[in-house]
């Protein structure tokens, strides 16, 4: 009994397997196109139909991309039941556009072991089927250069010709491997007569910058859209539309490498310019005061990433605080224009002539095919000494213009003008003579008094008390401490320079020169931090605590040095006998 049941199960499994194999063998697949022949830029639909149950992901059209532009693929499945017999079918529809004319083979497709038959497709130019007068939509492309250098801009123009009203549509960019492609300018729209038919033309321009040398093909852009079809009858308020797909013709270009032996920075362009601007428009340079210099490099037909750093050198007597460079790519007349701006704060430390060296930027002229240089000539600057300003916090009195006189005062002034000139001349002569006599008597009395004092004077030792600090040093120090307590970088820089001039006894020295004279590395470091917080691009929060403590110690040491020097100069109170 058990054996008979086992035999029945085995027979049932065999029958089921045989039915499945028979069903699998009954799946039929077929490939076809909706038109043959087709025009070189016209789209057609490739349909692959499988009669049976099959996976929808079994179809792969990637290997067609070598000869065709492959568009979207849509999948539809259908199930029918007739007289209790169920049938299934799956259809794959792919939009293809041939890249060039000729005879092509649509290869066999393998769908889970079920293969289609291959067949030939004829692609013909548009002139052999219809004249341009009969076409509703077509695309033209052109380049301004067939041969260019590496990283040189190529202008690529696309024109979409519309013979009917456009309901919707999208136009992609051209494609080229190892190239930077970007649209420049806005779309232009105009009408034009082409072979006795009026077309609405949409023109779009691209800039192509190749990054590799060799011979390449620029694949034309793809247009996908719908045109209003006026040839068919419309119903109600709705217009019938016709789906259209077009691709632009290919363009072949040759990209030349960098010339052999070229050792400079590679910047291919038609025109490169460099100029400078100074923050100080009066061309006055004062020791210790910052002046900002801005150098701008401009090049046509390149992008900002291609511009090199501007190599500018400065003497050791100038402190430099460069800002972060600003770069941008602009568009003008369908051409890319790249700019690079570098700003740097300069602080001259020495009075006299300052020579700024020449600035040169090499570039390759694509018109003359020669190396040229954008140059800023050397510049000689006269650095003036720093102008001393009063340390007192009290503002200087302002010279007010005399008020206008009215009434009797005007009459008095007029009467004064009428006095004869001879009286004034005689008066000034006698006055000058009297002053000269009085000055001579004063000088004689001073000489006689000093002679008597020198005779009666007794040599005595200098005072043992330590001389007090001068009022100008004390007032400068008080103002400096106020600025340090407020953490005010600007005021600290100003009053520190004034106080150090009193310490170094040099009334015309700049801040950097005074610091270098003191030969204090810690002070040099802290002053550089102060200046960097004011002039550097990467400014940090500055704290005056460390600088304040160092300056207190410096002031104390300076007083100690004066004390020691004074004690050395004094004669002993009880000299050795």
> Per the principal axes of the C-alpha atoms, what is the gross shape?
elongated
Label the structural class.
alpha+beta
Q: Tell me the radius of gyration.
A: 47 Å
Low-confidence stretches: 21-25, 128-133, 391-424, 457-470
Terminal CA distance reads: 150 Å
The number of helical elements comes to 8
Let me know the number of strands. Answer: 31
Mean pLDDT: 79
Helix content: 25-40%
The biggest beta sheet is recorded as:
5 strands, antiparallel
Describe this structure in words.
With 577 residues, this protein is an alpha+beta fold. The chain contains eight helices and 31 strands. The N and C termini lie far apart (150 Å).
Write the layout of secondary structure elements.
Layout: H1 2-25, E1 28-33, E2 38-39, E3 44-51, E4 68-82, E5 85-98, E6 102-106, E7 110-111, E8 114-115, E9 119-124, E10 137-143, E11 147-149, E12 154-162, E13 166-171, E14 179-183, E15 188-194, E16 197-210, E17 214-218, E18 222-228, E19 241-247, E20 251-256, E21 268-269, E22 272-278, E23 285-286, E24 291-300, E25 318-322, E26 326-332, E27 335-348, E28 352-356, E29 359-365, E30 370-376, E31 379-384, H2 408-417, H3 421-456, H4 471-486, H5 489-504, H6 511-518, H7 521-535, H8 545-569
Parallel strand pairs: 2-9, 11-20, 21-29, 23-31
Antiparallel strand pairs: 1-3, 3-5, 4-5, 6-9, 7-8, 10-12, 12-16, 13-18, 14-16, 15-16, 17-20, 18-19, 22-24, 24-27, 25-27, 26-27, 28-31, 29-30
Helix pairs in contact: 4-5, 5-6, 7-8
Features:
577 residues, alpha+beta, 5-stranded antiparallel β-sheet, 8 helices, elongated
Brief characterization of the structure:
The protein has 577 residues and is an alpha+beta fold. The chain has 8 helices and 31 strands.
């Amino acid at each position: 009994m058990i054996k008979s049941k086992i035999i029945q199960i085995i027979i049932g499994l065999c029958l089921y397997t045989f039915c499945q194999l028979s069903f699998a063998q009954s799946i039929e697949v077929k490939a076809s196109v909706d038109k043959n022949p087709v025009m070189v830029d016209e789209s057609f639909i490739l349909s692959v139909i499988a009669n049976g149950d099959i996976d929808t992901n079994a179809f792969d059209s990637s290997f067609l991309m070598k000869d065709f532009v492959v568009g979207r693929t849509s999948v539809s499945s259908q199930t029918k039941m007739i007289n209790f017999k169920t049938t299934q079918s799956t259809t794959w529809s792919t939009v293809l556009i041939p890249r060039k004319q000729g005879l092509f083979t649509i290869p066999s497709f393998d769908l889970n072991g079920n293969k289609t038959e291959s067949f030939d497709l004829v692609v013909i130019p548009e002139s052999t089927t219809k004249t341009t007068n009969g076409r509703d939509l077509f695309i033209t492309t052109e380049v301004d250069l067939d041969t260019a250098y590496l990283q040189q801009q190529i202008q690529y123009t696309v024109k979409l010709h519309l013979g009917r009203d456009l309901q919707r549509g999208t136009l992609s960019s051209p494609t080229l491997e190892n190239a930077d492609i970007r649209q420049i300018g806005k779309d232009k729209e105009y009408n034009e007569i082409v072979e006795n038919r009026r077309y609405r033309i949409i023109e779009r321009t691209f800039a192509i910058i190749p990054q590799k040398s060799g011979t390449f093909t620029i694949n034309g852009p793809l247009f996908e859209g719908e045109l209003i079809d006026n040839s068919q009858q419309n119903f109600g308020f709705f217009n019938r539309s016709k789906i259209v797909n077009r691709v632009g013709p290919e363009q072949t270009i040759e990209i030349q490498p960098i010339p052999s032996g070229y050792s400079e920075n590679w910047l291919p362009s038609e025109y490169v310019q460099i100029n400078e601007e100074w923050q100080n428009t009066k061309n006055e340079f004062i020791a210790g005061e910052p002046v900002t210099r801005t150098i701008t490099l401009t090049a046509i037909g390149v992008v900002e990433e291609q511009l090199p750093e501007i190599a500018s050198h400065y003497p050791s007597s100038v402190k430099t605080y460069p800002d972060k460079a600003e770069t941008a790519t602009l568009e003008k007349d369908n051409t890319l224009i790249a700019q690079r701006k570098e700003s740097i704060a300069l602080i001259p430390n020495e009075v006299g002539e300052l020579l700024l060296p020449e600035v040169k930027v090499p570039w390759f002229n694509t018109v003359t095919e020669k190396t040229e240089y954008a140059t800023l000539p050397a510049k000689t600057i006269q650095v003036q000494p720093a102008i001393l300003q009063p340390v007192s916090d009290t503002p200087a009195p302002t010279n007010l213009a005399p008020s206008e006189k009215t009434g009797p005062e005007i009459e008095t002034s007029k009467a004064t003008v009428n006095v004869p000139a001879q009286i004034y001349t005689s008066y000034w002569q006698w006055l000058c003579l009297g002053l000269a006599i009085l000055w001579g008597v004063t000088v004689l009395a001073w000489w006689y008094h000093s002679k008597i004092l020198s005779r009666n004077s007794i040599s005595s030792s200098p005072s043992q008390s330590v001389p007090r600090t001068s009022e100008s040093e004390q007032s400068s120090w008080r103002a400096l401490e106020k600025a340090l307590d407020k953490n005010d970088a600007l005021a600290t820089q100003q009053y520190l320079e004034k106080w150090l001039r009193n310490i170094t006894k040099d009334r015309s020295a700049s801040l950097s020169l005074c610091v270098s004279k003191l030969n204090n590395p810690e002070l040099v470091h802290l002053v550089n931090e102060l200046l960097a917080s004011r002039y550097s691009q990467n400014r940090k929060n500055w704290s005056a605590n460390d600088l304040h403590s160092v300056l207190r110690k410096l002031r104390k040491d300076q007083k100690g040095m004066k004390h020691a020097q004074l004690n050395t100069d004094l004669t002993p109170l009880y000299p050795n006998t």
